[in-house]
Amino acid sequence: MQNVPSAAVNIIVSIIPIVGIVMGSVVVFFYLFWSHRQRMLMIEKGLFARRYFDLRLFSLLLGLVLIGIGASLALFFLLKEGLAYSVLSGLIPLGIGASLIAFFIVSRNVKTNERDRA
């Protein structure tokens, strides 16, 4: 005799991800809402200090991380399955990492050229 799950079990199992997504969205919404209100109050009181974000350094870090992950995944899948579609799971982050490193190099050259003109 097979154990066939009841209709109630199927409904509960299908509702769990929906409730998780809705609750996660509510948490993210209130975090953004309260963060915005806090920032507006700090601006009104004159306490807000703008944070500096170095896009070049971030692109270098993220590019190196993605190149490492992509190269290791591509090598793993090449050795495991040969040349197949699964190798794309390593080549995609490898390509994104290489483009971020290229952005880092190009932006450095652009800043150097702007400094030379001034």
Write the layout of secondary structure elements.
Elements: H1 7-45, H2 55-81, H3 88-117
- List unreliable stretches of 5+ residues: none
Q: Give the beta-strand count.
A: 0
**What is the strand content?**
under 5%
Shape: flat
State the separation between the terminal residues, measured CA to CA: 84 Å
Radius of gyration: 24 Å
* Main sheet: strands, sense, barrel: none
Structural class assignment: mainly alpha
Order of helices and strands: HHH
Mean pLDDT, as a whole number?
Answer: 88
Number of domains: 2
Number of separate helices:
3
Helix proportion of residues, in percent? over 70%
Structure description:
The protein has 118 residues and is mainly alpha-helical. Helix content is 81%, strand content 0%. It contains three helices and no strands. It has helices spanning 7-45, 55-81, 88-117. Helix 2 packs antiparallel against helix 3. The longest helix is centred in the first third of the chain and has 39 residues, at 7-45. The chain starts with 6 loop residues before the first helix and ends with a helix.
